[in-house]
Amino acid sequence: MANELIMIQERVGYFAGSVNIGYVETEQGAVLIDSGLDAQTAKKIRKGLAERGQSLTAIVQTHAHADHFGGNAYLLEAFPEAVVLAPPVEEAVLRYPQLEPLYLNMGALPPDELNNKFLRAAASRVDQVLPDEGAFVVAGVTFTILPLPGHSWRQIGLVVDDICFAADSYFGCEILNKHKLPFLVDAQAAMESLERLLQTQFAGYLPGHGPFEANAEQTLRYNLDYHLRMCERLETLLADGATTEELLERLCGQLGIEMASLTSFVLYRTALLGYLAGLLRQERVSYQVTANRLLWRRTGGA
Fold this sequence. Notes:
A seven-stranded mixed sheet has the order 1-2-3-4-5-6-7. The chain has a five-stranded mixed sheet with strand order 8-9-10-11-12, with no helix packed on it. The protein has a three-stranded antiparallel sheet with strand order 13-15-14. Helix 1 crosses helix 3 and helix 7 packs antiparallel against helix 8. The protein is α/β, with parallel strands linked by helices and about 300 residues long. The protein starts with a strand and ends with a strand. It is built from ten helices and 15 strands. The chain is globular and about 65 Å long.
């Protein structure tokens, strides 16, 4: 059942759904890790809290994508005493959610189509900006921050009672294969985050999208290999050079992706640019403005 509360340990669990929402039970009320897409999801979360006899004391955000904080507005109206904690930079998007469609539209005024609930959530206050790493305490519970950038600029994971809430640093294998070109802003940082997670041995791992696993090593390696193969694919496609849109057309053609809306176009374009950013940092691709075109080439290509 969508948004069913599943307990992993005595006080730690998650609301399972298309976006997983972490749950930590305390004597002062529940702490949520993210809040889901919208008010409809948030209403189910509120009902789940009531069934556990819990109010809401805090929401800790892993990153500022609309599908992870879209429930804040409803929950904060229902529980006005709850506090919101978020990472640096990400907190700005929570407070000014128009920034998400703005950056996806490369800084230009977004068309109305991009102001949808998947790209622009209702604004949320932020009561505390979290440090880049280390630990903090909420309602008597210690949370440890794992910096996991790549999917988003300053995304974090959270560890509580040896359970790792890994946000969108990796995806369930089925979900990764379904979407084919995963959203990210920096492929190099995303792969470094996966390597960081592979060095850990927590009692369990939960991605933002995908199943909980006691041992996530196989899934993490699958994600890492997927990114490596995507980078190699792009290098091959850039042997003769291409503009960003030419490369996006070629890549989507190979992957069997059909972009049917402006929303899907800007998401896939950003993901492509995220891979190119990673390849550029590795000096595996280069770019040049020539004949009024931004042309990408594989390093050493023709």
